[in-house]
Design a protein that fits this description.
alpha+beta, about 30% helix, flat
Length: about 325
């Protein structure tokens, strides 16, 4: 019998997916059986809150075939059987579980917030450090956040307690005003001039952290277009709210509204910094050909397509017919 506890370490089991995969539930115990190797053997996998194990049964004599779990057992037959057996276990782990390293309530809330707002998942980049993960901006692959588990001593605190932290970008010129070495620290393992670290122990409220995440995301985009300030951005966002349901506009159209048709590219930059995709419907802004944006800030063109279609706008080959759906205002 093979203990699967190590295999399932830091994995959250999705029991609904187990059932869809083919497990049978009996008194809160999930059991999976499958014949392999031309029906000569049966894989048995048992998963519950207290039990997680697998075993291989020799169907002919109805006994466990323990040789497959002995590393010193070699040969073509054993090797092929072990490969099939372990392949099923790995497939179940991939399809029916999710990586769950970070367990504090704040960490879970933050992971969900970023998934819902930016459609970004944590990326575990280092096999040897599976308690370190990052979020990156899909537009340019720049990181805007990192979750890590470290000792408090790494932050200059006299304690070896292991804690969860989040690293975020922050304005270089303002960083000295936010770092207090109690709730907010200089960026751990990051450039301390442009990153901050926050302990996820509720010392800083979650809503404030959400705002800092949004700020970090915007900083990861950069500002290569020399925007003229928050007033210009707000004028663009306010305009988006006036677009009727079932209608779209172009970047040039928005630029003309704010008084300079040459600012179409700047409009794109502003929309990529949209703080609220529901309040300010930037999905309604298309290029002059009516094409969807590959780098639509809230999840790419597939999400943009879904949102347009929800308003009755037909999208064919990732393109909208402007002759049908473009908003023609009486006065710009």
């Amino acid at each position: 019998m093979r203990n699967l506890d190590n295999k399932l370490k830091n994995r959250a089991i999705n029991y609904d997916k187990l059932l869809k995969y083919g497990f049978k539930e009996e008194n809160d115990i999930y059991i999976y059986k499958k014949n392999i190797y031309d029906g000569q053997f049966e894989v048995n996998i048992v998963i519950s809150d207290t039990k997680k194990y697998s075993k291989l049964i020799d169907i002919e004599n109805e006994m466990e075939f323990a040789l497959v779990d002995i590393e010193d057992s070699t040969g073509k037959f054993i090797g092929g059987l072990r490969k099939d057996y372990e392949g099923i276990i790995e497939d179940i782990i991939i399809k029916c579980t999710n990586k769950e390293v970070f367990i504090s309530n704040q960490a879970k809330e933050i992971i969900n917030y970023i998934k819902q707002k930016y459609n970004d998942e944590l990326e575990y980049l280092w096999e040897k450090f599976d308690d370190n993960a990052i979020w990156r901006n899909k537009q340019n692959n720049k990181w805007y956040g990192a979750l890590l588990i470290i000792s408090e001593s790494k932050l200059g605190i006299e304690s070896d307690k292991m804690i969860e932290i989040i690293d975020l970008r922050y304005q270089k010129e303002k960083i000295q005003n936010i770092v207090d070495n109690k709730k907010v620290f200089p960026g751990y393992h990051m450039n301390k001039k442009t990153w901050i670290t926050i302990k996820l122990d509720n010392s800083l409220d979650t809503e404030t952290i959400y705002n800092l995440i949004d700020n970090s995301y915007k900083l990861s985009i950069g500002n290569k277009c020399n925007l003229t300030g928050n007033s210009l951005s707000q004028k663009v966002y306010d305009y988006l709210r006036t677009i009727p349901k079932g209608k779209v506009v172009t970047y040039k159209q928005v630029a003309e509204y704010i008084g300079n048709k040459g600012l179409a590219r700047v409009i794109g930059n502003i929309l990529h910094k949209n703080p609220d995709g529901d309040k300010y419907p930037c999905y309604k802004v298309l290029n002059s050909k009516g094409e969807l944006a590959e780098a639509f800030v809230f999840g790419g063109k597939e999400i943009q397509k879904e949102r347009l279609q929800s308003e009755g706008i037909k999208v064919i080959n990732n393109k909208v017919d402007l002759s049908l759906y473009q908003w023609k205002e009486d006065k710009m």
